[in-house]
Design brief:
Elements lengths: L3 E4 L6 E2 L3 H14 L15 H11 L6 H21 L3 E2 L3 H8 L7 E5 L4 H10 L8 E3 L7 H16 L8 E5 L2 H9 L3 E5 L6 H6 L4 E3 L7 H5 L1
Parallel strand pairs: 1-4, 1-6, 4-5, 6-7, 7-8
Antiparallel strand pairs: 2-3
Length: about 220
Amino acid sequence: MIRLVLFDIDGTLIRTGGAGVKAFGKTFAAEFSLGHGLEQISFAGRTDPSIVREFLALHRVSPSARNFQRFFESYVFWLDYFLDQLDGEILPGVKQFMSALQTLPHTPLTGLLTGNIQLGAEIKLRHYQLWENFVFGAFGNDHEDRNQLACIAQQRGSRILGEPLAGHEILVIGDTPLDVACSKKIEAKMLAVASGIHSVKQLQDAQPTWVVENLECISAQEICG
């Protein structure tokens, strides 16, 4: 029985129309006068701080605590701005799947397992009126290593439930091979959805428990009941 369901955000729950990437670019330009090189950086499945660190290293800028603070203070402003400017959407089946979780005989705890910093995650999900669906989360500002975030989420979920959670009692839902890898770190079950930039075949190669095109293609009862 699944007792905890952990959701990734970008490409899994929502598509922002590129608001996050644009906010990164605008912040680097405005705060550090760095206007090129972002196209060399891979965003999918990574933590926000690891992306910032890589970009600063690319331009030989110190990855100091102050520079990280400067970046994220500006980033959240631009993220909010671009979310209002761009056409995004809640991905197919998300609302129905989440509603179905609440109707299961043993309702699982729902949380976030995301590389977004916590405030960035909240800004995105409040914009799409999804934030209130989640009891807790593990976020990019908790650790730069995505695999370690899975351990943090497992520990936090266990504390909320009042007893240790085994890996087989946890379901991770995400859209990248890195999401699959972090699920394996805690031996959780993994539902990979091809609603982001990776194909069904690419996700199958990472060997999750299930792969579907999107959350319309599978029921909560099938995998959590």
